[in-house]
Amino acid sequence: MASNSDPHKFINVDDSPPPSPTPSDSKILKEWIGTGQKYRDVPSSVSDELLRRLALPSSALELLPRDEVVIPELIKCDFPSILTQDTSKEAITYFSTRLPTTSELSSCLTRVVPSPACVRKLRDYAGQAMLDGKVSIRDPTRAKSDLFLPFHVLTFWAELTEAIGAKQKWEASYQWLKRMSTMLSNEWLYDSHIDVMLSTMKLQRTQAGGLPLDNVRIETPFVPFLLSRLEVFQADDTSIETYRAKGPEALQELGDHLVKFSKDGEVIFVANSQHDHWSVVAITSDCTIRWGDSLGRAIPQDLLSGIRNWLHFHIPDKTPTLLRKPLPCAKQPDSYSCGIIAINTIKHHLFGEALWTKATREVLRIQEFLAIMDASAEAVRKSGFYNFMELRGAIQPSDTEDAAADTMDFDNDGDFAESPDGADAPAEELGAASRSMIIAESAAAYSSPRSGFFGSRFRLLHRIFDLALFTHPHALSL
User: Fold this and answer.
1) What digits encode the pLDDT tens for the residues 1-13?
2) CB-based contact 154:161 (threshold 8 Å)
3) Fewest CB within a 10 Å sphere: which of 109, 278, 315, 426?
């Protein structure tokens, strides 16, 4: 009887292999294996035999992370690397009539794993290889290898690749969250923090019914970086043809936005001033430029020149003017609040939020952090994918940022080693009441000596991490 299943069906680690062949099955297998048959429309006895050969024995299962592994354990697992490119030859060249040199797969944990493409290629050919009388697979990761492995190594490699991928995704999420925890400190904020706060701001306003004006564009620090660095904006004699041919598409689209909304268009972005300070620039379709700086610094001349030349390409009949009246902006009394003040300046300008004050310094940082976590949780709920990199895929730390990031390792119980004493609340969805409680607790800590600030930081981070990651106990269920 012909099999109704996919001839390339690949047994999963959770699947039970078919029972041992009956005498009738054995007779059919003799008629098919080693007799020149093709693996097409095969009897169920034949496809079941392939599944038996691919099924993992208990000794191999013990080498893989268990299904219920939790995230801290998975992150600690020491896995081999995976070949990123398929350098293998035709699949037929790796199957052999030689008996496996070993039935144990522990050595596979110390050897590079074949690329997923190679494993798929071998898996898809396994049925035909079996009919050709092949009983083993030569290690495809090493030229002229003398290691011959049983068929079930294909299942092992597939499961191991999935575990390695899950670990990489969780590590990326953990590192992202660790970098975001800088929000809960008195440290300077990097462009990755500014980017994600701007992304979260736009996402929140969109979910609330859209930005108050469709004519407003909020952009990241990359825009002023381009305006102040690229020759096409710094040279006064750049032609419009050169600009259209060589100018960044993102800047051309922003300029076209101001033309489209000729009466009330606006572009606003955070700019890095003198490499260690965040400020805000607001540009309108009337070619007015407003600069908001929490230290009262003037707009850098290279940025101002770049903005003027950029505006000239799109609105040549108007003269760009830097207004003497600055953008309303809080005054910064410390060395680290410029990033939060820049975000607050935009929110005050666009949405009427109260300006930053020294009294709200820490609370606003907490609120921004919680907004990021809420947006991340919402992305998780919508996609079902537990990876915080979803929120801002472009966030990649610089070497400086990596060096400045706090070191937070897991202790033996899977908690943060720096977590303060005292019981944490059970992990639960972070609702409005929980957010208010955390803000109140943290604000109270900020009124005490600075040591309370850091204690609150790690208490809050521990709770957020519980919410974000440990509420999903099965790390491999991605």
Assistant:
1) 344 344 444 455 5
2) no
3) 426
Quote the DSSP letter at residue 410: B
- Do 88 and 140 form a contact (C-beta atoms < 8 A)? yes
Give the distance from CA 253 to its chain's centroid.
26
What kind and span of H or E run contains 250?
helix 249-260
pLDDT at 442 over 80: no
Long-range contacts of 223-226 (CB under 8 A, 24+ apart): 223/250, 223/251, 223/254, 223/267, 223/269, 224/269, 224/270, 224/271, 224/272, 224/281, 224/303, 224/306, 225/272, 226/250, 226/251, 226/306
E strand map for 48-100: 95-96
**Confidence check: pLDDT of 196 > 70:** yes
Rounded Cα distance between 133 and 32, Å, is 10
User: Does residue 311 register a pLDDT over 80?
Assistant: yes
β-pair type (278-284, 288-292):
antiparallel
The angle at the Cα of 338, spanning 334 to 340, to the nearest 5 degrees, equals 115
Instruction: Please work out, in degrees rounded to the nearest 5, the angle formed at the alpha carbon of residue 468 by the alpha carbons of 460 and 374.
Output: 80
In the chain, % helix, strand, coil (3-state, to 5) comes to 50, 10, 45
What's the whole-number average pLDDT of the chain? 79
Nearest to 129 by CA among 107, 153, 110, 108: 153
**Strands 288-292 and 321-322, sheet pairing:** parallel
- The gap from C-alpha 355 to its chain's centroid, in whole angstroms, comes to 32
Closest CA to 283 of 249, 306, 250, 317: 306
What is the arithmetic mean of pLDDT over 27-31? 95
**Of 249, 325, 313, 338, residue with least CA distance to 288:** 325
CA atoms within 13 A on the CB side of 348: 16
The count of other CB atoms within 10 Å of the CB of residue 257 is 18
CA dihedral for 345, 351, 352, 356, sign (positive or negative): negative
